[in-house]
Amino acid sequence: MNQAAAQPQALLGWMESLADSTRLRLLRLLERQELGVVELCEVLQMPQSTVSRHLKLLGDRGWTTNRREGTNNLYRMTLDELKPAARKYWVLTRDQTADWPVVEQDRLRLDRVLRDRDRDAQSFFADAAAEWDAIRGSLYGNAFQQSALLALLPPHWVVADLGCGTGAVAAELARHVARVIGVDQSPAMLKAARKRTHGLSNVDLRKGSLGKLPIDDASCDAVLIVLVLTYVESVEAALREAARVLKPGGRLVVVDLLRHDREDFRRRMGQSSLGFEPSRFSAMLTAAGLTPRRCEPLATEPQAKGPALMLAVASRTPSTDSTNPLSDRVDQKESPVSSR
Q1: Residue 186: which of 225, 233, 130, 244 has the closest Cα?
Q2: Count of domains for the chain
Q3: With the C-alpha atoms ordered 65, 122, 287, 306, is the resulting torsion angle positive or negative?
Q4: pLDDT tens across 178-200, in order?
């Protein structure tokens, strides 16, 4: 079939696929947030068979994509990935449904589902704060910490330690750099960090989330994120915020879980994802306005019981454009940042 003949059929297919209120509600939700079937059932208040049937049709028509996360399929609609004509048709349709009462109900239920996700991680850290250093050491070992520090030695640097946890890295780093800004969302973790860094005048601890850092634009020579991003709902937003606070040419160092399939481990640790595949994570760094330098697995340690780890190093792409979008804060729901 030639392209001219295919265009009317494509248009009719799009119109047919959107001629259902449930599918419209699904697309509005999936444009905002990547969700699993169980979560969609909870928001829409519909049985799984109904939701799955509509998701299949939307996927077949190219409206949604999905990926495997452990035993679950996660669904998403990304506007930029739609064909231009389909994107225009959806924007028009979305605008016309904005004042539906059921859309507001869906939004409120989705907000509750996302808050429940956050509470799972916060609950874990509230219970684990007192023993977290021992837990972390038994799961991941300690050599990864030294690997991260070796990338951050210039003594004049200001370094942001995001998800600083109990302050173990911040305390060690403070001896090598001019200033350390530690950010964590867990009050229990920050209390432990303040105790550990007491007397270190160059450590500044702040409460905040990775999605909206309490740090000025372009104020840090380096950003360190160790065992945090698996707890964050929007890793892309967190990386954009990290890029925002970096000076042009500044360095980002990330240590986190290599992609694994231990769903029971993810649930037990209150994590949002199963780790990262280096090439995909490198692409995420690029999309955030960073230039990847290294993105590779770390050597495993004999005593470590958790999944293997990954080290990523990137730099803030220098820009002479004063309107660089990285200077704008990412306005989104707060994500848990505790890890240590």
Answers
A1: 130
A2: 2
A3: negative
A4: 999 999 999 999 999 999 999 99
Tens digit of each residue's pLDDT (9 = 90 or more) over 1-59: 444 444 667 667 777 888 899 999 999 999 988 888 988 998 898 999 999 999 999 99
Yes or no: say if 18 and 64 are a contact pair by the CB < 8 Å rule. no
Distance between CA 324 and CA 76 in Å, rounded? 27
Nearest to 55 by CA among 82, 75, 83: 75
- Give the phi and the psi of residue 298 in degrees, each rounded to 5: -95, 150
| Boundary (domain end) residue, out of 98, 116, 138 | 98
Give the type of residue at 133: D
Q: Which residues contact 232 (CB under 8 A, 6 or more apart)?
A: 210, 211, 238, 272, 335, 336, 337
**Within a domain: 117:** no
Q: Domain for residue 51, yes or no?
A: yes
What's the whole-model pTM score?
Answer: 0.58
Write the burial class of residue 332 (CB in 10 Å: 0-12 exposed, 13-18 middle, 19+ buried). middle
- Lookup result for tokens 């951050």: 152
